[in-house]
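SAMPLE LOG
Freezer: B-3
Tube label: C17
Construct: single chain, 314 aa
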Amino acid sequence: MVDGEDLVRILVTNDDGVRAPGIAALARMASTTGHDVVVVAPMIDYSGSGAAVGPVHSRDGVDYEAHAIEGLGDMPTYGIDGPPALAVILACVGGFGPRPDIVLSGINHGINVGRSAMHSGTVGAALTGAHFGLRCLAVSIRWGDDPVPWETPAAMAAALVPVLEQAPAGTTLNLNVPAVALGELRGLRHGRLGRGGTIRSAVHMAGDGSSPLPHVALPPGQTGTLRLDLTAPGSSTRVQPDTDAGLLARGYASLTALVGVREAGAEADDVVDGALEALYALSGVTPGQDPDDGALDDGALDGAGGPREESASA
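STRUCTURE (predicted):
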């Protein structure tokens, strides 16, 4: 058991929903760490939600309901009416007990690699936790028929919990695993974030059942249907073998460190300077007073659309 003074609080979440088998496998693993564990996840499938929180400013609150994971009846588990990033925020601001130290997001049924990771609710939840200074892991397994070897990513996630405990604040790791037993892995390597995505093209379907319109065309009417040409990420060995997608395509597991929204570096300075000059050319737009000169106060900004303190959910 872990000593009380070293007790770490772990939040387990996902985007497949609180009843999904992947989150059950991850929660069971987390229960073996000896740490304090709480599960907060969407009531329904929020796959592809990224780091969305939904229209929080236009609702009175967020509904939740208690849930029980088989074999973990004593573990506090809740489903919320909202996406996984919102679950993380609610846990961080006291909605489900003390603030967590670590976020474990997954196990997603379907890998999250390349550009597709940006749209993943699994990854989005982890990056949201990182914005609060938490140490986070997003973990996914390649889509496959039952029986899915959930124990493979669960065992690998368990090995990473001590690493996360010692990692710098805001660390986010993205682990993607083939759907094989642990002993059948071809290998595990650091994978660069690939450039490939899932949606390759969209084609307008003709309502009368005739041939689709040309590949690039404006909509032919007021309503219609776009057929999506999808590709399974990590399925082509034409992708560079040192990327996350390339590794998965070759039967390897991939581990990638991610960062969320942050300011661009010096490479954007010229563009920003040019944009400011273009805006200053508009009548009435100037740099204004130095905001640090003490002349401005909160009262002077009230009702004038002035700045307000934003939370990490903004």
